[in-house]
Amino acid sequence: MAEIFGVPVAVLLGQVLLGLINGSFYALLSLGLAIIFGMLNVINFAHGAFYMLGGFAAWFALSVLGVGYWPGLIIAPVAVALFGVVVERLFLRHLYRMDHLYSLLFTFGLALALEGLFRHVYGSAGKAYPLPPSLSGGYNLGFMFLPAYRAWVILASVVVCFVTWYGIERTRLGAYLRAATENPYLVQAFGINVPLLLTLTYAFCVGLAGFAGALAAPLYQVSPGMGSNLLIVVFAVVVIGGMGSIVGAIVTGLGLGVIEGLTKVFFPSASTIAVFIIMVLVLLVRPAGLFGRER
User: Could you tell me which CATH number the domain at 14-285 has?
Assistant: First the structure.
């Protein structure tokens, strides 16, 4: 069997695929964070909490409402997005033109409140969410057995990320949004409802986090702390890709997932800090991030 640095190629390919799974969640979460910061000027520290809400919404839809996985995959992000509308309308819209510190403190407090509330109601133990029958089993790739659900996670994440990028960068609605962040008064003079546009943008971005949480539910136990465990890594991904860069969030999220997976093969003890080491090196060379713009 062929080897690279003494490690079988089959093992490396297996770790690449496993890394892509983690990278899929990194990409989805960092994409929402990047859009919220780039378009709304808000550091959304509650993004991990919205990810957790998506997982709980999917679990609630299955265990309480009795709906299957596929309806739950739609219900969860919609429910999280609607909650995001309430948060944006009541609180965040007053912080857009203020210093980033205010939005960071508010969203950090919101995250603590949501996590504490769910821990009080459901406890710290996770809630099991079964795999959907239609995505059970897997595929024999020769070098590894790839579970069907994990393949679905990668596919769904890549498609959603591409559609989001296309919608913002290549459509008229995306052009309105980008213009509204630069000169909202001019855009509003053309009859565009800028406040509504910003509200829908925030709702969509936190809905992405809810979608990621619903995707993660069958892979990991749904628990109040599931978002806080990912949030720091996701923020590092956004910083490496470039604050506000959509392409940077997607490419860096997927790429760092693969690097993290390979690190577990060659340097297992460094796998948990590899992302942060890369972040430090990138900031030393390019403070704006790999895809960010110097201001």
Answer: 1.10.3470
